[in-house]
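Sequence design from tokenized structure. All designs in this work follow the same two-part layout: the structure record, then the generated sequence. An example of the structure record is given first.
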């Protein structure tokens, strides 16, 4: 039987079909957090398959397939968060109340469009340049590292207000973070050493939110996942240069 938490994590993080859950409870998302890095690896495997199915045609065609898969399988969930955060930063002028107001606006402004376009372009270029030797396994691990980051940020940065971020963090334990960290460190050391830069990128992300807002919410988590994925892709490209 598939664990309930895994089903919830797949439903929340992807567009993949899952068994139906009719009695969702408020704590289900938090209890599913233990599966987030695993679901990240599932996302990475789908992206790697897309890239390497068409990379023999041309690296850019493979990269385009990878980006399309990345956006489709996640439903643009984290890109939406990145766009919302970009709009809020662009319009708030360091006013926390203005930041929160813009963050809650469902409309996409010019800063959101620019941020999402730049993020997609960054992933496209980096996927085209990623070295062949380590890339398939590295691509599986990159989304897993980013979703481990979501667990760390939720535990180390207070929520901006009552909402998704607060509910998500309620059942996250340092023991699960430690276990997943050990798995990802070991796997990265085996297949792609540059991914160990996640040990620096993730804490820096938490420090940024503490310094900039002294808090975090669901959109901030999504934005951080997107930025972490791009920085890890960059680390792979630079590490094999």
């Amino acid at each position: 039987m598939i664990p309930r938490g895994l089903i919830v994590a797949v439903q929340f993080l992807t567009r993949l079909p899952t068994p139906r859950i009719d009695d969702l409870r408020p704590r289900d998302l938090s209890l599913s957090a233990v599966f987030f890095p695993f679901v990240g690896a599932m996302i990475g495997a789908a992206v790697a398959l897309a890239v390497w199915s068409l990379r023999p045609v041309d690296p850019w065609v493979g990269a385009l397939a990878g980006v399309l898969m990345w956006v489709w399988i996640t439903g643009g969930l984290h890109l939406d968060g990145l766009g919302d955060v970009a709009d809020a930063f662009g319009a708030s002028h360091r006013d926390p109340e203005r930041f929160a107001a813009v963050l809650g606006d469902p409309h996409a402004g010019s800063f959101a469009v620019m941020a999402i376009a730049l993020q997609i372009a960054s992933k496209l270029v980096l996927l085209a340049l990623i070295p062949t030797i380590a890339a398939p396994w590295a691509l599986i691990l990159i989304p897993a590292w980013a979703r481990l980051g979501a667990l760390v940020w939720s535990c180390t940065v207070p929520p901006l207000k009552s909402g998704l971020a607060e509910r998500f963090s309620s059942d996250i334990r340092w023991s699960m973070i430690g276990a997943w960290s050990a798995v990802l460190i070991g796997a990265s050391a085996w297949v792609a050493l540059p991914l160990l830069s996640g040990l620096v990128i993730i804490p820096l992300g938490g420090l940024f939110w503490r310094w900039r807002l002294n808090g975090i919410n669901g959109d901030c988590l999504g934005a951080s996942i997107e930025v972490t994925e791009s920085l890890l892709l960059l680390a792979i490209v630079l590490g094999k240069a």
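The longest helix spans residues 135-156. We note this feature because it recurs in several other targets discussed in the main text.
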